[in-house]
Design a protein that fits this description.
Length: 333
């Protein structure tokens, strides 16, 4: 099956500017925020992209929707190559994809009512001939909010209600792909569950594909068919979600899972912890870029970059010494 979204060897770079850069480095330097990422999202599929802050997740999402310039690589969406398209050429593409921003309340203009916020996608994309008041009521019903909310302003909404309005805006034009950047950020645990159930329900009803950007792995397990783990702008493991939770192959993926709260009170906690800070993108470690923080690193890891192998049983990872089913690395070669 041809993927709805296909990303191939994508590179996104930013120029570092400012006085400190000129003093220390002699001028602007480029930062590789996304470094050779390949990823696909199928029709009706939910894929999660996880990793710590600064791993490149949001930059990748912004590149897909045309808000971050692509240095090289390919983005193919719904049969069309879209990497490098200008704003005018991207306009019809953006009718078929939508981005949900992190802050549920802050992403909504405080000067507009909910009715105006839900009407905005239709006006922006040239559908103002529709009955926008009726569309607003329809969208509120779609996300489980009463029609009376159309007259409210964002400050009159709870975090969960504001997130539902954000979801309604995202699906207003019936896109084929929704990119959800931290969809449960800032919400209570019980409200997080409601939002995730809503996304699952809308996916079933509307047949949309979803790319979730998050650091919260408890979100991933509930909604994602597949999960890709990013570190320093690269994918280090990709797997069907349940397989990743059962037997992570990359130590970084295992460490992220170990930091995830375990709902079973009788479960034995995984003691693997991440040590140190995420390295600067300006000074990437040689070899495997995770080796300074990896408890299983061997001499080979310090000078030989591991390659993200071809998928095996739907899984791939970039590690010289992948973990076995018990979470232990093999003996060094």
């Amino acid at each position: 099956m041809t993927p709805l979204l296909e990303i191939e060897d994508l590179h996104v770079r930013f120029r570092q500017r400012g006085l400190l850069s000129r003093l220390l480095d002699g001028g602007p330097r480029e930062i590789a925020a996304v470094a050779g990422v390949s990823l696909a999202v199928g029709a009706g599929e939910t894929v999660a992209l996880v990793g710590e802050s600064g791993s490149g997740k949001t930059t990748l999402a912004r590149a897909v929707i045309g808000l971050a310039a692509v240095r090289s690589g390919r983005i193919r969406f719904d049969g069309q190559d879209i990497a490098g398209l200008g704003d005018r050429a991207m306009q019809p593409v953006r009718r078929r994809m939508a981005l949900m921003f992190q802050d549920p309340v802050g992403s909504l203009s405080p000067r507009l009512t909910v009715r105006s916020l839900l009407s905005e996608p239709f006006r922006v994309h040239g559908f103002s001939h529709r009955d926008l008041a009726a569309e607003a009521v329809r969208l509120l019903d779609l996300v489980g909010l009463p029609a009376s909310f159309a007259d409210r302003y964002p400050h009159q909404l709870s975090g969960g209600q504001a997130r539902r309005v954000g979801v309604a805006r995202a699906v207003a034009l019936e896109p084929r792909l929704v990119i959800a950047d931290e969809p449960t950020a800032g919400l209570d645990v019980s409200i997080q569950g409601e939002v995730l159930n809503l996304l699952n329900d809308l996916q079933s009803r509307l047949g949309i594909s979803i790319l979730i950007i998050t650091h919260n792995l408890s979100v991933v397990r509930h909604v994602a068919d597949r999960t890709a783990v990013m570190y320093l702008g690269r994918i280090v493991e990709e797997s069907p979600t349940e397989a990743l939770f059962r037997h992570p192959r990359h130590p970084y993926a295992r460490a992220l899972l170990a930091a995830n709260p375990e709902p079973d009170p009788d479960a034995v906690p995984d003691r693997l912890e991440l040590v140190g800070e995420v390295p600067s993108l300006l000074r990437r470690p040689p070899g495997c870029e995770f080796h300074p923080r990896c408890p299983f690193a061997q001499p080979r890891c310090t000078n030989e970059p591991p390659l993200l192998g071809a998928p095996a049983d739907g899984r791939r990872w970039a590690c010289h010494y992948p973990l076995d089913d018990d979470g232990r690395p093999p003996a060094a070669a």
